[in-house]
Design brief:
Order of helices and strands: HHHEEHHHHHHHH
Helix content: 55-70%
Oligomer: single chain
Shape: globular
CATH class of the largest domain: Mainly Alpha
Largest sheet: 2 strands, antiparallel
Structural class: mainly alpha
Number of strands: 2
Radius of gyration: 21 Å
Number of helices: 11
CATH architecture of the largest domain: Orthogonal Bundle
Length: 256
């Protein structure tokens, strides 16, 4: 029996007076709210120390109700708040001795700027590149939340920095782009100056897609999940390298 077959099957010998779910049952419980979750994703969160299911002598994962609540908390924090796993784990560790993860409001209060300092160097982790939730923002909502004018949004769209979805709505990342562009404009960098950023990002995406394509084409049912994880890690490393090169260039230009 493979590990996938074992994990997806029923868990024998559940504890008296309680319940123990297999990873397959947990997947079915989570999918109504998190349709993109997979068995591989749950295993990945376990490997990162976000959840700690017990094991039977036969190797079955056994998830308690608290484990499922913990997974819901992690997935919600990633989807709705774009929080890195490190920050989520810190919040969960802080509540392990007291209230359950679902009762920890601190994670819900973190805004999009607070988690940027999660790494000592201030650079992103792979988890920062997880796809967000299906946020559907109108043009008016984006202008209000992003703090930009309609004319600026037109420029951002012309230069490919913000792109509405097929139905004409915007996602949460568009708000972050708008905030960033506004801050750059305050320092003298206008949207028309940012076309090079769009072109560079597109080149990097094309390169990373070529690198992970062979992995995603494998017949292993978990290949797509692994390809996504590798792509996110590559993206984080690319951003880190870019930042370090810019830092070195500025230091050299300043004679340091």
């Amino acid at each position: 029996m493979t590990s996938a077959e074992r994990d997806a099957g029923p868990v024998p010998g559940g504890p008296a007076g309680g319940s123990a779910l297999s990873i397959g049952a947990v997947l079915e419980a989570l999918r109504p709210d998190f349709p993109d979750v997979t068995i591989s994703k749950i295993r990945f969160l376990e490997s990162e120390g976000l959840v700690h299911p017990r094991r039977t002598a036969s190797g079955y994962r056994r998830f308690s109700a608290d484990d499922v609540s913990r997974l819901r908390f992690v997935l919600t924090a990633q989807r709705d708040r774009y929080l890195p796993l490190k920050v989520i784990k810190e919040q969960l560790d802080a509540t392990d001795g007291g209230s359950s993860p679902e009762g920890a409001p601190a994670v819900r209060r973190l805004d999009t700027t607070q988690h940027r300092g999660a790494r000592a160097d201030g650079l992103p982790n792979a988890a920062d590149f997880l796809a967000g939730g299906e946020t559907r923002m109108t043009r008016e909502q984006l202008l209000a939340d992003g703090g930009i004018t309609a004319a600026t949004l037109v420029e951002l769209e012309q230069h490919g920095l913000v792109r509405p979805g097929p139905a004409g709505f915007y996602d949460s990342d568009a708000v972050l782009v708008a905030h960033t562009v506004r801050q750059l404009a305050e320092l003298g960098l206008q949207p028309r100056h940012l076309r090079a950023f769009r072109a560079a990002a597109d080149r990097e995406v094309g390169l990373l897609s070529q690198l992970v394509a062979p992995l995603s084409r494998q017949r292993d049912p978990d290949a797509r999940q692994r390809a996504d994880e590798v792509a996110r890690e590559l993206a984080a490393l690319c951003v880190r390298l870019h930042a370090l090169l810019v830092k070195a260039g500025l230091r050299a230009g300043a004679g340091g």
